[in-house]
Amino acid sequence: MTEKIAITPSTHTAPPARFSHGVRKGDILQVAGQVGFLPAVEGRAPEVAGPSLREQTLQTFANVKAVLEEGGAGWDDVMMMRVYLTDVDHFAEMNEIYNAYFEEQHLKAPAAARTTVYVGLPKGLLIEIDALAVLG
Amino acid sequence: MTEKIAITPSTHTAPPARFSHGVRKGDILQVAGQVGFLPAVEGRAPEVAGPSLREQTLQTFANVKAVLEEGGAGWDDVMMMRVYLTDVDHFAEMNEIYNAYFEEQHLKAPAAARTTVYVGLPKGLLIEIDALAVLG
Amino acid sequence: MTEKIAITPSTHTAPPARFSHGVRKGDILQVAGQVGFLPAVEGRAPEVAGPSLREQTLQTFANVKAVLEEGGAGWDDVMMMRVYLTDVDHFAEMNEIYNAYFEEQHLKAPAAARTTVYVGLPKGLLIEIDALAVLG
């Protein structure tokens, strides 16, 4: 019997419902949809990193990474990233930010697979990302 | 060689195409996108549980659970839930229903991760949910 | 330590960012979101198979299959397909194409689970599909 473990980085606000920011069971780690919220400040509502796609994307990456690391994984273990944007016109800029970010991460393993689609998100949010990682 | 098994609860209408309501292979169980259809009645078209978000969400949960259980799993094994809503204004109400439902389920393991996005769905449907479970 | 391997079929254009068309680690193979691009021609921009849903869907299937096969898998190993359409009115036609295609593939294992939602995609694209496979 492998235990299912909730992953809750100290930087994260409590989820707005009964879900976990991440869960790990054996070698499988799933990161819930992350958005550009700044590290949680007790007693204050979640605050977005900024109005720009760049600010939100970089903060979203930081939030995904925090969950991965809290769960004993890293970007190299990520198999799939799902990127949700609100505007097709953001695709090129998101890719630029994405490429620059992952270049700086100096990954040893190949880049994860990815799907990008354009959906609705809560007001003020321009990007959401979730990730599936396989460790071991 | 691990066998891939189709999961077809008796309550479910036949899928409208060549896909399975769920599949299991070894410890991985994937539930296809479920909506608020009532248990199938032979010779009748699928019928939605009702026009409200509450009715549809609870029926959708029941349908996901039926697939999990038919496949030998339960909510405690779910790693990821993907919730598709059609209207950002439904987020708060969905979370209320979500929280109350899972409180009643008396889970022993931590809550699954979750991503919620806002998409288009076939006319009359307000919510769709799929789930990835890891057993063992 | 199981190695994470990038899957890059020779038919595929380079991804527009630092992601892989597919990755495999142990028994898990993830196919990135595929669209209806024709096999890559060096020095030319990616070209869509055609303006119709049929052309794009069949080419998308071919692209998913190419990633699966390059990674040592096939349709029989696919657990989950995520189908992204841009128009609810395309559902029935997509299902017809889907059913006919998979009938021709003569699968030995049960059909994969599936979720279909309606999202925005880059201009000119009517369908995108990604897939999770479990081998072994």
SSE inventory with pairings:
3 copies of one chain form a homotrimer.
Chain A: E1 4-7, E2 22-25, E3 28-34, H1 53-70, E4 78-85, H2 91-105, E5 113-118, E6 127-134
Helix pairs in contact in A: 1-2
Write out key terms for the chains shown:
homotrimer, 136 residues, 60s Ribosomal Protein L30, Chain: A, six-stranded mixed sheet, 2 helices, 24% helix, 27% strand
Q: What would you say this structure looks like, in words?
A:
The structure is a homotrimer of 136-residue chains. The first copy, chain A, has 136 residues and is α+β, with helices and mostly antiparallel strands. Chain A has a single domain, classed as 60s Ribosomal Protein L30, Chain: A (2-Layer Sandwich). The first copy, chain A, is 24% helix and 27% strand. Chain A has 2 helices and 6 strands. The first copy, chain A, has helices at residues 53-70, 91-105; strands at residues 4-7, 22-25, 28-34, 78-85, 113-118, 127-134. A 6-stranded mixed beta sheet of chain A has the order 1-2-3-6-4-5, with helices on one face. In chain A, helix 1 (53-70) crosses helix 2 (91-105). The radius of gyration of chain A is 15 Å and the shape is globular. Chain A starts with a strand and ends with a strand. The A-B interface holds A 1-6, 15-23, 25-26, 28, 30-33, 82, 84, 119-123, 128, 130, 132 and B 27, 76-77, 79-81, 88, 91, 95, 98-99, 102-103, 109-119, 132, 134, 136.
